[in-house]
Amino acid sequence: xxxxxxxxxxxxxxxxxxxxxxxxxxxxxxxxxxxxxxxxxxxxxxxxxxxxxxxxxxxxxxxxxxxxxxxxxxxxxxxxxxxxxxxxxxxxxxxxxxxxxxxxxxxxxxxxxxxxxxxxxxxxxxxxxxxxxxxxxxxxxxxxxxxxxxxxxxxxxxxxxxxxxxxxxxxxxxxxxxxxxxxxxxxxxxxxxxxxxxxxxxxxxxxxxxxxxxxxxxxxxxxxxxxxxxxxxxxxxxxxxxxxxxxxxxxxxxxxxxxxxxxxxxxxxxxxxxxxxxxxxxxxxxxxxxxxxxxxxxxxxxxxxxxxxxxxxxxxxxxxxxxxxxxxxxxxxxxxxxxxxxxxxxxxxxxxxxxxxxxxxxxxxxxxxxxxxxxxxxxxxxxxxxxxxxxxxxxxxxxxxxxxxxxxxxxxxxxxxxxxxxxxxxxxxxxxxxxxxxxxxxxxxxxxxxxxxxxxxxxxxxxxxxxxxxxxxxxxxxxxxxxxxxxxxxxxxxxxxxxxxxxxxxxxxxxxxxxxxxxxxxxxxxxxxxxxxxxxxxxxxxxxxxxxxxxxxxxxxxxxxxxxxxxxxxx
DNA sequence: AACTCTACTTAGAAATTCTTGT
DNA sequence: ACAAGAATTTCTAAGTAGAGTT
Length: 571
Prior knowledge:
- By secondary structure, the protein is an alpha+beta fold.
- It is about 50% helix and about 10% strand.
- A hairpin with a 2-residue loop joins β5 (about 145-150) and β6.
- The radius of gyration is 30 Å and the shape is globular.
- The chain binds a DNA duplex through β12, α7, α10, α13 and α15.
- InterPro entries: DNA_brk_join_enz (IPR011010), DNA_topo_DNA_db_N_dom1 (IPR013034), DNA_topo_DNA_db_N_dom2 (IPR013030), TopoI (IPR001631), TopoI_C_dom (IPR025834), TopoI_cat_a-hlx-sub_euk (IPR014711), TopoI_cat_a/b-sub_euk (IPR014727), TopoI_cat_euk (IPR013500).
């Protein structure tokens, strides 16, 4: 028995080490700690109920966090104010502070606020030389803390600076907004490094929480963040080999799904008519994930914003329309997804899906789960049985990359200029961003820049009118009294009209592009969902320099694809 | 099977730097 | 040379999902 157990353990360990060992040597300097708090100068003061009040450094620091945010919308929210005030209260040590400060509305941070506004103004107005000094300082820091040695290679770290203390700003209606995010002490930090590497030195007079040598994980340091008590990590930059290989693997999994997707689609359609409710729900859920690129929708606690994904959709998030906009069996989705970004969509669905949805919502309240018989865990288990490595999120990657490839094929033609090809690429990229619902707040300068563009267009149109008039005159002159000179003039005027028309077309194209990008964020899909091999192959096939599509960071991240992809690559 | 813990990817906002037109 | 606007980088929150625990 003993031998069997021993063998079992060995086998398990070997199995584990062969596919979960992430590195064999790892050395780094540990995280960089943000600078200590610098107390306010004596002439800058906090006022309570009209009276100046000197605060202890600890409470003063917290007050500066709030004061700095004063002209941000956040500080006008009651939840934010209450969370801030109660966390601030807990840090107050002096009896005077505890006794006196009773309500936020009597707190006056305006002098402190003004002080920081002026400070940042000063920063902006620094001379070139002063800025250069700062830049060098930063690059020295990067040089010292920004890299690690992993398996003998110098790799860039993604976030070597620890997060400074401040007030927590959640996304959307977050119940914890305004809470104090505490300063991280070395005693909070776990270091992970190679067994025989040099152990990073903690700041003088301090010690690490723990030093471990676990090569089954990729992080260099971790701590528990105090708002939710979740772990945070210091990890490598996407340009690293470790991350790059993982990224490549992700797209290879998505490509395997391509081989399997027909049979999976057949299966979920079959599930729509299953005797079992859970199979029907699973079938419809996977259909949504596949068709609409919805996220899985894990359960979440109520200590965060109320957002949902597919499996956590509630009855109130969909409306069924027998007929809508001239189409049958329409489902109207309206819910807040990740980062409280609104998902709003009206989609026609198969009759059987419509019937099922009606069934799922029967006798339920608006706040009940739409899919009450399934969870993301069960759903992923089913998917994994269809194909090893398949989970809900693979569908997003698969559908995003497939869409890019299809759109690129559709939108690119040989006669196009490089500029037109780039526009096509952006269009294809945009189709993906829309599919994945990647939105952003409209840029503050949007209206202005749009107006500017429209003025330019108007001007161009006037120029064209003018040029046409001149052309007409030239024509007439040439007809009345033909001569070499009149002919030349005519040709010149014709060219001018043509040139101006082209410029107008370009401006109008720009206008469309700009308008369409108003609330669409292209970056997220480009960085996380689109197999870089598709882009690289397209660039090669159509002689578009890859730098026109990928900036430096993106080229670093996708080095693996740029190196190995030829123009015949198919996703 | 529910719950907890952990590790990793994905996300938009904000800050910073670069580019462009004047 | 400089200011405005665009592009890029930084920051860190918020997801997904696997594994372990009860």
